[in-house]
Specification:
heterodimer, A: about 110 residues, mainly beta, five-stranded antiparallel sheet, globular, B: about 110 residues, four-stranded antiparallel sheet, 11 strands, about 0% helix
Amino acid sequence: DQQVKQNSPSLSVQEGRISILNCDYTNSMFDYFLWYKKYPAEGPTFLISISSIKDKNEDGRFTVFLNKSAKHLSLHIVPSQPGDSAVYFCAASDSSDYKLSFGAGTTVTVRA
Amino acid sequence: DAGVIQSPRHEVTEMGQEVTLRCKPISGHDYLFWYRQTMMRGLELLIYFNNNVPIDDSGMPEDRFSAKMPNASFSTLKIQPSEPRDSAVYFCASTGGLPGGELFFGEGSRLTVL
């Protein structure tokens, strides 16, 4: 029973345009959300996070938006670059716990 | 500083054989996690340890899977006997930070069971 869902397995976007990745969660106890990026043959690496006390967090080209009432978050990448081509995992946790629950991932391909 | 180190990077074995995957967490991290990545389910938590003690093993799929952490710098995940459906990438991760925070992952062990 997956508590974090990424319903789009893949996304293709042209270089310079915006990439929008979506994530839904079911556990109302989750109050901390993270995005990880994974290149082939490498482990996932942390990208950006957001606490439930916020609805937006920005870091350079990456912005995460949180809609707690809808149990939905999204990652915006603007502008998209070829180096952004990777698998992106959404993750969530209850901040009283150390374990992260991950979604299935979205493969982003940025076309030149 | 060295990151999380996993071995082997690739393992090909035949059904019924024993498989042992190894992990060295980042020094000073007192939480260690084993995840499995599959196409259908993404990253699934199998088990995690705190100070070498298993805290939650509810994600371990069957009795064929076992994990140990004999000391702060070493953990193993063992599958005996292995089956083709165990084929996946197995990741080890560690953290020493606050609850709910960032995990640091190794490069993974790709297991293929024929």
